[in-house]
Amino acid sequence: MARNKIALVGAGMIGGTLAHLAAMKEMGDVVLFDIAEGMPAGKALDLSQAAPVEGFDSRLKGTTDYADIAGADVVIVTAGIPRKPGMSRDDLLGINLKVMKAVGEGIKANCPDAFVICITNPLDAMVWALREFSGLPHNKVVGMAGVLDSARFRHFLADEFNVSVEDVTAFVLGGHGDTMVPVLEYSTVAGIPVPDLIKMGWSTQEKMDAIVQRTRSGGGEIVALLGNGSAYYAPATSAIQMAESYLKDKKRVLPCAAYLEGQYGVDGLYVGVPIVIGAGGVERIVEIELDEAAKAGFQVSVDAVEELLAACKALDSSLA
Ligand code: APR
């Protein structure tokens, strides 16, 4: 049986971390594609030289030629520019939209059967544009946002409750970051919902509100600290979890930016919702009953995504 092939389009900070994780986990052979000459080949060579020490047999290749991603089973897209301090994700729109066009066409021509995970920001708009440009089925193109947002949330909750991160689950909906909607009723420690933990005196509503706010601006906090670029370890780990669920048909239930066709009252947009990822790609969209507050928060996300799509259509008439 041939090994899986994982193509990473964009070999920058997240791309390099993705390659390292995919190789260490022996998820398959890895191709690092970038427009920068030399750099993807350099990273692939460096990582290949870690293989004898770590004992992994993934083959790694760096390239600037789309032909090398031919036949990829999974494509993870980070191509584009990241945020600099003071920039919002939306500021990236114009530049990264052009990048999505080139990448979408490259995927369409070389690996139209792949499962595609988009990480490039502004996420909810870029994943939609990438799907449009690639022409792949909607169930094979998803955006990585919710796994990262909920990981940030879980980290802060575990810290506050002083328990293992493994026992904390978090439920988030909506757009990436600033407009994400954490649903505390479905966020738990070992199955105990957060509102019950507040009643039990483990924390206070005020502290929870502060954690929600810190999670929403979690990406910005890291951008400000790094001073030059945005987060890459946790984003890469999150996308790898999604890729593994597809390649191993694990059917994980993960919050991702998925294409909605009527669910949650939304039609024709990518928004963050819980989905089941298995060998069929997006196998199910999990639609839960929302209370009024969550509904209102979700609508803010949807409105923000709609505005971004309108901006994309104004910039590129082929999307209109
Ligand atoms: N095709 C392929 N690669 C491209 C293209 C293109 N058209 N345009 C830019 N790139 C490459 C750059 O050369 C760079 O190596 O994309 C890479 C991006 O890497 P970084 O600048 O290190 O950015 P990174 O931190 O990896 O983030 C990438 O993910 O989270 C989002 O906001 C983030 O949009 C950004 C993306």
Give an overview in words.
This protein has two domains: 5-143, NAD(P)-binding Rossmann-like Domain (Rossmann fold), CATH 3.40.50; 146-312, L-2-Hydroxyisocaproate Dehydrogenase, Chain A, domain 2. It contains eleven helices and 14 strands. The longest helix is centred in the C-terminal third of the chain and has 24 residues, at 292-315. By secondary structure, it is of the alpha/beta class. It starts with a strand and ends in a 5-residue tail after the last helix. The protein has helices at residues 13-24, 39-48, 51-54, 93-110, 123-134, 146-161, 194-199, 205-216, 218-226, 233-247, 292-315; strands spanning 5-9, 29-33, 60-63, 74-77, 115-118, 141-143, 168-169, 172-174, 180-182, 188-189, 192-193, 252-261, 267-278, 281-285. Strand 12 (252-261) and strand 13 form a beta hairpin. Helix 1 (13-24) packs parallel to helix 2 (39-48), helix 5 crosses helix 11 (292-315) and helix 6 (146-161) runs antiparallel to helix 8 (205-216). A six-stranded parallel sheet has the order 3-2-1-4-5-6. The structure holds adenosine-5-diphosphoribose. Adenosine-5-diphosphoribose (APR) binds at residues 9-15, 34-36, 78-83, 92, 96, 99, 102-103, 119-121, 229-230, 232, 235.
